[in-house]
Task: structure prediction
Amino acid sequence: MRKRKAALVLLCSVTLAAGLLAGCGSDTGGKKSAKTDKKTDDLSKHVDLTLGGIGMTDSDSIDGWPTEVVEKLEKKFNVTLKEKQYDNESLNLDLSGGTTTDIVMINDDHISGVLKGKHAVNLEEYKDTLAKNIFSDNMEFRNKIMQTYKSDGDNKQFFVTPRVTFGDTTANYGTVLNNGYVVRWDLYKQIGCPEIDNDDDYIDALKAMKEIYPETEDGLPVYAMSAYNDSQLHTYFYKGCLAEGFINLEGGIYVQNAQTNELYPDIYDVDNPEVLTPFWSGVKFYNNLYKEGLLDPDCFITKTEDLNEKYTKGQYLGGNVNWHYGKYNDNQRALDSETLKEYVTLPAKLGWANEKNLAGWFGKYFFVSSHSPNVDRAVMVLDYLQSEEFSRDVDSGVEGRWEKGEDGKPDLTEDTISMKTDGSRLDEWKKAGIGTLGDTCGEDYYNIASDGGRIDLWFEDDVLPKSMTFAEKDMCQTLELNLPSDTLKKKVEAGTSIDLGNCLNAIQMGMETTPKDIVRIDSNCEEITMNAIPNLVQAKTDEEFESAKADLMKELEGAGVKDSVKWWSDGWESAKKGIEELRK
Amino acid sequence: MPKTARTVRRPKKQYKLLLLVLPFMLIVLLFNYVPIFGWIYSVYDYVPGLPIFDCDFVGLEYFKMIFRDANVLRTLKNTAIFAAISIILTPLPMIFAILLNEVKSGPMRKFVQTFTTLPNFISWVIIFSLAFALFSTDGLLTSLMGKAGLIGAGKSILSSKKSVYWFQTFLAQWKTLGWNSIIYLAAIAGIDQEQYEAARVDGAGYFRCALHVTLPAMMETYVVLFILNIGNFLNTGYEQYMLFKNSVTAPNIEVLDLYVYRIGLENMDYSYGVAISIVKSVVSIALVAIANLAAKRIRGNTVI
Result:
């Protein structure tokens, strides 16, 4: 009996220990690199391929996966494709262990580690064989930038970027605007649709709307706007970028003039007092809202999901962007399909449209992992992601979802157009995969494909009006427009607004990797500024505001901001020269 | 001492006990000692993706940076304040356990114990959502406090710099009170009931029984936990403070652990983050040693 007990105790202990140690064993992700000197397009063997990146979504949580677009890719290349979501920590872990996905998307923070650690395959070795789309003539400018600025000094090419705009592309502004001065259409109409040309006009309109709508139907208090506090200073500088005509670099500490392409320090503006930078424009705007009693008192604690919830409840009258509406518009249309109660966007000074991504999207760099057991196949798939065919599939659906008319021009089918707005066909819409993998396509939405149609057929002029809601149609009728986005078109033609047509955002890619001491200074300055926001926004007089600003400037100087400004200014000038040289 | 069958059996029983402890020792080894090898990152300028020995060797540069960094002083001050308040409130779970022990109704006692222990298992994310619903400007409790004149219009505790220390402590205590009292309840359960009977015979009421019987019996447990708390002086955690941090509360709410998280993980300054963590560990060990020594001087026995 005692021996049996002893044996049982021993067995339990060993089982426990084995169970614990099992988790320490290396997982099947420990891939050995299967380097091959032969650049083969042999597709006879079925392989599993993974695509991962920061900000991407796990394919297991994507409804409809594998979508029609993915199924076509899998069949074409005899692969099973999975997508993996990375964050900074998990990506760093996989990079350290050499266990990344086969194709990886990174941002600028990881470039140095990937290059020095030799984690990326030199795509130039496949230039004449498996990577013809990557090295097509249209991608020449992008490739030059990758070879010059995102390489190891030998002008090899390791990275590709998504959404490259080709030189001959002409964009439109879509059906509706995504950024600008947001208003509740029914209330804005009620106050007589006053012209909104600047922040002061906007505040007057918000005041007037609040007077006629002081609380929601459920008795909840109504405010003009709030801030979202889970994106550092974004809520302030982004507002200012729209009002003053700038685009922001990462973090918003520095901004680029959208017309002259000059770099300006956004917060430490002592050296350029004649320029109202976006951050100060945004903060002053929120200060004015506060003084008028229009700002949500919870603006310093509200996170994005709280913001969306208040929008859904109808507690806000305005905003800057259309992705914070929550479910308000959908809920109102569900109650009444002809409702005018909808958030719509009017143009600010900068219409964030007609962006020329000549070198692709900044901050997204794809590479093939040198540790992949299927390097050749991964290169083939990455090359396909860069192709016109794949970009068209993602944006417009696989062929069948669109078809060529008698004139040979491709058009979305009526069935596809109606499927988008038909709630009962949601599953089918998700299975179609239109818009999924949008960050991976090589070509920009507006590029003209070889068949004469745009890559994204939803942006064809005859399709744009078809997706308007009743409120948007009413808006067009009231303001005598064809599309809601014509509000921006008119202002650009009149010279009171601008778009991003002249903005050379590729300059950012020409910047060197920021040294760690400058990163620390910038991070510190960002934190100091965030802590100073309440005093600035809640300043009761202009004198109080200026005093709070002066205090902030002093603190920033103590944190070494001048060193940062010097490094960025010098780097920007050098990058601007270099990129403009490459453009010639 | 003559060998008996009983003394011969003792070593075998001890081996069996050791085997049972083995998995837990492995866990401690894996999660507490093996990571110490990561301290090497503090002397290299680590770049993710590059093997550590291929990175630039910087020696004690990051340790020197700690003394130049004003944020370290600020976060240390916040950490010290939160820790000091927490140490002052260490008797609370003990008092709660004593009071709970006085509840004679079994079902009532079980209910109160369960109700107060459950918050410990609720994630801080959910607690933040709850706090937002209650204490935001439009929150239920804020409205009641406003009507009672305790708070001005348009104000909320969540966006009040002055309220940070006591409000965060209140939340932490609410969350952990029930759980921390369990060990004291166990200590109370071990008290000989004859002592209570003897005290009652001498005319002691509930209060005197608690003061002269229950409290002395729990002092050993209290001292041990107190010493361990001293050792955790700098380990305030970061989850709670990260969720409740906003631009108003940031100067007072950012503790050392949150600062290390921000610079180490968000800014990917791993080497600097490791350097600060090393200094924190050394200080914590020193504090435990001092507290242990003090316990020996005062009470004559030690924990370690």
Remarks:
- The two ends of chain A are 90 Å apart (CA to CA).
- The CA atoms of residues 38 and 219 of chain A lie 71 Å apart.
- The longest strand of chain A covers residues 47-54.
